[in-house]
Amino acid sequence: MSRRPDRALPEITSSASRWIKTLPIFLAILGASTLAIFNYQKASSSIVNSTLYALRTSPRAREALGEEIYFRDKFPWIWGEMNQLHGKINISFGVKGKTGKGLMRFRSVRKTRMGYFETQEWSLETEDGEIIQLLEEERADPFKNTTLQAEVKE
Asked: Are 83 and 89 in contact (CB under 8 A)?
């Protein structure tokens, strides 16, 4: 194998044009990955786990959705703000049971720096548009920490 010394040299392509073509793809992948990571953090938080557990044990939610209440989607998307540091939680996510689907909303605020969170809304909107207020049930507020409040009063 021999090469001729007087052969034509290949064209030099600008690496800037390659960067310009691939930069939007890179940024899109980076943005999607960032959103997925933050959503995973929300989905695996104790707030979401607690609200989902309370929903499973709620008689009115079980009546509307059936047994085996869990996330509606395989990869659940948690909408809203979850800022425990500043005392603001306002989330919603899709849920499903054996007989129905719905959207669960949960809103809780902490009014003072060292205060307790106060649940303002905990509702379930079914597929047919019916909104079930789950805080108005006869049972006690499942999010209220009664043992700590009892210790503070003593």
From this structure: yes
Beta bridge partners of 71: 95
Q: What is the pTM of this model?
A: 0.74
Are the beta carbons of 125 and 131 closer than 8 angstroms?
yes
- Distance, CA of 51 to CA of 54 (rounded, Å): 5
Residue 147 vs residue 99, higher pLDDT? 99
CA pair distance 105, 91, nearest whole angstrom: 6
Measured between alpha carbons, how far is 95 from 71 in angstroms, rounded to an integer? 4
Q: How far is CA 131 from CA 23, 32, 52, 126, 136, in A?
A: 45, 32, 17, 7, 12
Reading the block at residue 6, the tokens are: 């007087």
Are 142 and 57 in contact by the 8 Å Cβ rule? The answer is yes
Q: Residue 149 corresponds to which amino acid?
A: Q
- The tens digit of pLDDT for each residue in 60-69 reads 999 999 999 9
Q: Which of 148, 131, 137, 39 is nearest to 91 (CA)?
A: 39
